[in-house]
């Protein structure tokens, strides 16, 4: 018969391992998107990071607005 503490420790380790993998995956996706957008700035906007930033803000606000037709997600900022 297994000790209850061993079962709890295994559960906790699996929980943290799964969450660590999710975090690593999210950071990897974010890093990839960041580099693609930097390349877009260089190629399409001739390195104009200010214009790229403005486009990014506008696109981000549009993406937050479209699902619910409001901007409640940024209300508490």
Description:
The chain crosses the membrane at residues 20-37, 49-66. Keywords: Membrane, Transmembrane, Transmembrane helix. The protein is an all-alpha fold. The chain has two domains: 1-44; 46-77. The chain has two helices and no strands. It has helices at residues 4-44, 49-65. The longest helix is centred in the first third of the chain and has 41 residues, at 4-44. The radius of gyration is 21 Å and the shape is elongated. The mean pLDDT is 89.
Describe this structure in a few short sentences.
By secondary structure, the chain is mainly alpha-helical. The protein has helices at residues 4-44, 49-65. The chain is built from 2 helices and no strands.
How many H/I helices? 2
Low-pLDDT segments, ≥5 res: none
Order of helices and strands: HH
What structural class do the secondary elements suggest?
A: mainly alpha
Compute the gyration radius: what is it?
Answer: 21 Å
Assembly annotation: single chain
Question: For the residues shown, what is the average pLDDT?
Answer: 89
Q: What is the helical fraction, as a range of percent? A: over 70%
The total domain count is 2
Keywords: Membrane, Transmembrane, Transmembrane helix
Transmembrane segments: 20-37, 49-66
């Amino acid at each position: 018969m297994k000790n209850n503490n061993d079962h709890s420790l295994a559960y906790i380790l699996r929980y943290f391992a799964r969450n660590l993998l999710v975090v690593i995956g999210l950071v990897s996706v974010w890093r990839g998107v960041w580099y693609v957008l930097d390349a877009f700035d260089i190629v399409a906007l001739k390195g104009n990071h200010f214009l790229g930033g403005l486009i990014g803000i506008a696109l981000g606000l549009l993406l937050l607005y479209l699902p619910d037709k409001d901007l409640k997600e940024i209300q508490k900022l």
